[in-house]
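May I ask for a single protein's sequence together with how it folds?
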Amino acid sequence: MNWVIGKKQKRRNRIKAQFGKNPMELEAWESLEKRMREIRMYEELVVQDVKKEEWQSAGSVDTVTWNDLEMDRVFARINHTRTYMGEQILYHRLHNMQTRQSCEDMEKRISFFSRRESIRTEIEEKLMRIGKQKESCYLPFFLTEEINPLVIPGAILYFLQGLLAFCLIGAILLRSNLWATGFLVVAVVNLLIYLHTKCKYEGNLFMVSSLKELFDFCNWIVKKLEPDRPEILHALEKTQKLSHRMLRWQTRKYQSISGDVTGILWDYIAGITLHDVVAFYRIQKTLRACKKETMQLYTFAGEIDMEIAIASFRKSLPQWCCPSLQSDGAISVKEISHPLMADAIPNDFVLKKGVVLTGANASGKSTFMKAVAINVILAQTINTCVAKNMKMPAIQVMTSMALRDDVLQGESYYMREIKYLKRMLDELETGEPMLFVIDEILKGTNTRERLAASNAILSYMVQKQGFLLIATHDLELVYALKNRYDTYYFDSQVHEKDIVFPYKIRRGIVGKTNAIDLMELLDFPEEITDQARRAVGKR
């Protein structure tokens, strides 16, 4: 008994110690990356039906923007979740901007979990029982798709069960070879049906077994916290029958693959008697009648797990703030930094309408732009900014920063870029407030046309509603736009055989470049660097 208590206390101490730590230090990115396909399933499958009604989404992050900003890694940085549904709900939340009311409601719960360590630890302990089994990640697909009935109708299954019992009784009481032969024939038929069903539905068999832990957690949390969620109480009531059916099903979980004699023996008995097939048929029939309520409980439990993860993420940061969302005005930040950089240099910044950013190579332009875009997304998805203070209107984000040639589609870099720029222009016409972040516009074409087209596009965009954050090395373009855009830059300083980057943003246009300096630091032949300096008039 003392051993059990000691083990439980160690688990709780480990949970407490992990809260507020960087999840990427607890689970390697390579390990999480292998699970990303399953984590994405809720976003890819369920969002089509529930985004507008249940999540009240106020906008979404498209695939190009998500990849540009390396949002999979940002997700990994926040992912302190304990369950598969928590991971999926968090991943989905980071894709979908929330309404102000939704953020306010979520903030109350996050604050509660941040303050109440004992309850939070107890909840995390319960969530760990659900865990992150791979097969359970497919529950959203199972619950949102049409649940197909078994190939063998239920009436035939019940008939075969009764016939097996009848033959067995006849063989025992009458001691008849005929009845014994009948028993063996029915047993073989049942076993074949069981093996066929197991082969076809094995994923579902394991998947539904995790529902019992979900139902138990939701029942426990409702009694523990008494949330004002009548729809959850209704869902629990509606799924009560399913929960009872799952109780007996749960005892069979993984027995057939345990490898011990008892497990193998029970597997044969379950096959001959059609025990598991009939049990799965009943569960499937019951689940078909309460799919919506089961999905509500799935989302409810995932939200709790997600909100504890957000509380942990906040504690792991040197500083953070809740955004001040305004109906209009500029994007104004104090000491903003990138969430993936442990020793990031914070910067103050105001984006009134349009900003052109210049700077030396490797000086921090792209990282800063990503920091702004990521924080705008985090502000409206998890109500958290990696900054001392952040004021902004509700806006959507689109970026064009890391496009590549698409060999399979036969599209060049330039073709992909202008298609995406056209999408940005189309979004401008909707009148919705947007933040556009563009790194090196039209760099896939020749200098003359790039400057002319870039000037025309950016001059057009700044006249519309929205914000633009542009980075470029083309100083001719900067001077052409300086009356329409504010200008900022990042600098570098050469000290003997080293280049120092302050990573601080400044007002104005960069006064010097460092491409040739960097070549010299990497020991390019002196003939090359001298010729390059003469060509740009630096000799």
Summary: The CA atoms of residues 443 and 450 lie 7 Å apart. Residues 151-297 form one domain. The two ends are 82 Å apart (CA to CA).
